[in-house]
Structure formats: structure tokens, C-alpha cells
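Annex B. Sample input.
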Amino acid sequence: MPSMKKRVAVLISGRGSNMAALLDAQQHAYEIVLVISNRPEAPGLDIARAAGVEALAIDHKQYGKHREAFEREIDAALRARDIEIVALAGFMRVLTPFFVRAWAGRLVNIHPSLLPKYPGTDTHARALAAGDSEHGCSVHLVVEEVDAGEILGQARLDVRDDDTPESLAARVLELEHELYPRCLADWARGM
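Annex B, continued. Sample output.
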């Protein structure tokens, strides 16, 4: 009987901790077959290789201001490997409409806030500055508007009086490592 696992590629830019959590939690719903980083020195590439996953570096700097040309290179790599779902895990590039449209409904992201609150960057500092009593993370589908796609799941925690942006980020990251694999598996099963 053929495998029903969805073929997943993960796009990263750095240490790859969410990618590692996705790898560790692989089950019957998805299989990570490719990891791509826009930074050749990203430590996450070594984590992927150590897990036996193909890992590619496609350096965005080689494309200068031609963001779509960079993304077309990624798109070609994904299509050559019959990828079904693209998971963004700390991929620090805003995607162009070309890529978002090409992978519409198959492009998933983890974001460190309780969307729709705090799209974009500096989410932890923004939550603290607003005096929020709770914070967390969201897994969502990617659409052209940044962090505005359908929410697939969220995880929450209480903000502590002594939290700093760094301590809050560390605690939210732990939630991300639990939430992302669960949401990706549920999404893959439903496709």
C-alpha cells in the first residue's frame, strides 16, 4: 500500500529548532524530505543532514534585489522533489506574491504571537509594552498579507511580571515546538 504521508519541505534561516521539532514529531501524516535555508551557514542545515534529510542552501544574497528570482530557484527545487506542503520555520524572508500564489493552501507558518495580534516582528516586546496578560504562538496558512492567513492552531501562556522579551521568547518557543508538529500533522491529514 502506498504511503499516505505528505511530502514536506521546511524553509529555515537559522538554528532550525522548529524544524527539529517537526522532524522529531514525524508520524503517519507527514515526512520531511527537504530542508532549504536562505543562509548557507544556518545551523539547522546540519541538524537536517544528521537526520538523513536532504538539506540545501540557496543564498538569497546571490540574487540581490531580485526576490522573485531567488524564490523561483526554491520553487524549482520543491517541484523537482514532488513537495506537497511547505512549512516555514524561522524563514526570515517576506515571500513575494509569486511564491505565495504558487503554494497557496500548501504553505504553513509558525508565528510568535496570538494572531491577529502582533503580526510581523518584535512580537514579545510588543506584547509586554501593551501589558498583555497572555501571549503565545499561532500556526497559520500563508497569504499575501503578512501573518493574516487562516489560523490552524494556537497555544497560550500567561505573561509573568518579571518577563523580558527574551524570557517570553524562550517560553513561547517551547510552545511552538509542541504546537507546530501537531498542527502540521492535522493539516496534512486533512489535505
